[in-house]
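ok so i was messing around last nite and threw this chain in just to see what happens. nothing serious, just curious
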Amino acid sequence: MSKIHGWAASAPGKPLARQAFDVGGLGAEEVEVAVDYCGICHSDLSMIHNEWGASRYPFIPGHEIVGRVTAAGSLARGLRVGQRVGIGWTAGSCMHCRPCLSGDQNLCGELVATIGGRHGGFADTVRAHWAWAIPLPEGIDLASAGPLLCGGITVLKPFLEYDIKPTARVGVVGIGGLGHMAVKFAAAWGCEVTAFTSTMAKADEARGFGAHRVVASRDGDAIAAIAGSLDLLLVTVNVPMDWSALLGTLAPKGRMHVVGAVLEPIPVPAFSLIGKQREVSGSPTGSPVDIARMLDFAARHDIRPQVEMFPMSKVNEALAHLEAGKARYRIVLEAGS
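result:
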């Protein structure tokens, strides 16, 4: 039997404890990856606390993994031992359904989440289907690359999916773990970027990330002043907002795209959509090809998440730091420390 050693959640609300798990032999289409770095995403907190009702204990969290291939199954393709790879939210998909065969593997009905029923990256080793272990491009900063594998592709996916033009006017709601990356990507894409934040103390930082304009997200008058101006409004927060006001910022044929896990229903008045032919949409992460394109774009434009580093042994302190809202703006754990 093969063993994985990592920091595991045993029940909701319990601190993580280092444990060993027998995981059996390596599957024919799997690769084993030695973890060098693993980002902490708010989704890890949600899974640790079972906020979505999908957690299965005990499990090792962590799905923003940067590491090296140490072993490959007999049917694994395109990877070699020693190669640097990244693994994000997804560790496997069926590879034979219509979405998989269409290049939308992230929409597979049998999708295997990296921390859904298996062990993730707060560990020494992790496993995934070979197609979901994405080769890292030359020049990418390994220490900060982990958050790109979940948050980065999450915010870039609508640009790829909806053919957002470099001339587009883009709004980003929330300048946090997701939002600060969204501003960086949108600016590098060539767009005019408006950042919406409830904390105007972040205004200078938002401009430093590439925002051309900063608007207070709780100021109705400030939001009304830009009504009808945005081609894409990317919502990265997970809290209720003045949705009517935000929809009003959209230009004709504008789109509000939701990537933040807002648990409450979002009211959408029909006439707000019909009159201006607006759209509301959402998306998860992306396919392996999407993730590879995102990584290439990030490497070319030197897009790096702003990260705070913690040793893996201080994972509980790092989680508390994130839960307290103190992270600026992503946390990365360094393995072997």
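not much to say yet. The first strand starts at residue 3 and ends at 8.
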